[in-house]
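PROTEIN DESIGN WORKSHEET
SECTION A - STRUCTURE
LENGTH: 259
TOKENS:
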């Protein structure tokens, strides 16, 4: 049986997340898989990036590490924003790679590269960024519904949703189900297989990288774009409803620092 490997985490975190994985496996998954067909080719589509990494413009109102109403509001980043204009708050993940290269957690610049090479037709002008809190579910759902209205008005063809940790992963899964229910196809990248299994997502790719590193190491542009390309392909090509696709990338950089 496939499972998340937490061996590259510090020992205390490894124990915590292995216990969490067992709890997820003991829970019954959502009965219904929410699924909306992707109707176009990527080269003719408008794709939106939804980040759940607490990223925001340095000139904008910042996220904080407090579970307060303001942190359930998404921030909007333009799709052409350079990484040095961005900041973030890491609520439950180690950020040493993100400090060097924010594309490790929010690959805006890498998505632009794929658009320039013609792999995807158009990137929606707004990137939506959530902090990752989800305890106040009504506030998260309210923000997500407002985002969905904007996406529907803009006639976006599909969304890729990228969390970076356990807490942000749960938030991303909630958002993904709501977006898919609104008849916008989604593709989610997860670092936590057991968690994604519970949420019965329509399209999901599992990459067994440490929290805070969904796209690997800082500065590895070819790796970042390869993973992003796979996530987009799943949006277009996946026909088996509810399957979690395993991306066969191997973390080979040893243990990560504690946080």
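SECTION B - SEQUENCE
RESIDUE ASSIGNMENT:
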């Amino acid at each position: 049986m496939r499972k998340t490997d937490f061996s590259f985490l510090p020992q205390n975190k490894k124990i915590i997340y292995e216990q969490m994985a067992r709890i997820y496996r003991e829970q019954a998954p959502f009965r219904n898989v929410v699924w909306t067909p992707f109707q176009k080719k990527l080269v003719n589509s408008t794709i939106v990036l939804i980040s759940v990494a607490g990223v925001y413009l340095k000139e904008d109102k910042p996220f904080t590490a407090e579970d307060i109403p303001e942190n359930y509001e998404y921030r909007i980043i333009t799709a052409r924003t350079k990484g040095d204009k961005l900041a973030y708050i890491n609520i439950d993940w180690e950020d040493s790679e993100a400090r060097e290269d924010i594309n490790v957690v929010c690959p805006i610049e890498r998505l632009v590269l794929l658009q320039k090479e013609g792999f995807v037709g158009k990137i929606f002008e707004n990137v939506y960024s959530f902090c990752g809190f989800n305890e106040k579910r009504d506030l998260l759902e309210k923000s997500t519904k407002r985002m969905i209205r904007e996406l529907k008005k803009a006639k976006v063809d599909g969304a890729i949703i990228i969390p970076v940790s356990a807490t942000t992963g749960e938030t991303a899964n909630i958002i993904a189900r709501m977006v898919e229910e609104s008849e916008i196809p989604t593709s989610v990248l997860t670092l936590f297989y057991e968690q994604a299994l519970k949420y019965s997502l329509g399209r999901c790719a599992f990459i067994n990288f440490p929290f805070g590193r969904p796209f690997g190491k800082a500065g590895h542009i070819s790796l970042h774009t390869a993973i992003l390309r796979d996530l987009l392909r799943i949006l277009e090509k996946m026909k088996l409803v509810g399957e979690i696709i395993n991306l066969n990338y191997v973390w080979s950089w040893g243990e990560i620092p504690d946080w």
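SECTION C - NOTES
The beta strands are 46-52, 55-57, 75-78, 86-88, 122-123, 126-129, 158-163, 186-190, 204-206, 244-246.
Residues 11-246 form one domain.
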